[in-house]
Amino acid sequence: MERSAAIALLCQYVHEVGLKKHCLATGAIMRALAARLGEDEELWETIGILHDIDFELICGDMQLHGAKGAEILGKHGIDPALAGIVQRHNHTLYSGTYTRPVEIALQAADSASGLVTACALVKGSRISDVTVKTVTKKAKEKSFAAGCDRSRIALIAQIIELPDFYAVAIDGLMGIRKRTGSDLIMGNRQKRIRASRINRTSRYYDQPGPAEKRSAYPALACRSSP
Questions:
Q1: 124-154 tens-digit pLDDT
Q2: The domain made up of 3-216 is a member of CATH 3.80.10
Q3: Burial call 144-172: b when 16+ CB within 10 Å, e when fewer
Q4: Are residues 152 and 91 in contact, defined by beta-carbon separation less than 8 angstroms?
């Protein structure tokens, strides 16, 4: 599936701007990781873009998250293998079972997208100003972008060193501007967000446990399937 088609499908089911940006950011990191590891770049990016396609439909019920996404993808004729990866990315149900590189990568990218973006906010909202040193330092601060699960990011060490992963993630997010000519991660409103609001911003970039998940997107109303 081409990137434009994946985004069009995502937008049929996801309307909240922050959640869309999270999905695009996750996709960008997945694409960069695939390039680094010699995997299918288009496939990995598509998985990243579509991984939370069901989130506005499940109304905070983490027992449905992923499975509903797979159902949606099946309805649109998406490869069952891709849909299965989306279903299994729900770590509240499948934590500890990830062995395939693509699943490990999705766990790390899902959380790292928010961590790197939060670092960019501190640096004046420019991804280009974020360094591996910056991310490494901020990742050690538990109160910084607290919604970004470091344990999920740490899984990536099975296939790539953590500093290298951070470098790939930064390059991936920068690649959005290079490929599209626009910054899809942070618009003008996000650029005005101060560092004191970073933890609030990071809520869009991780998959916390059931109770936390229900309160992570307070502005989202439950939607019916298109």
A1: 878 889 999 999 999 999 999 999 999 999 9
A2: no
A3: bbbbbbeebbebbeebbebeebbbbbbbb
A4: yes
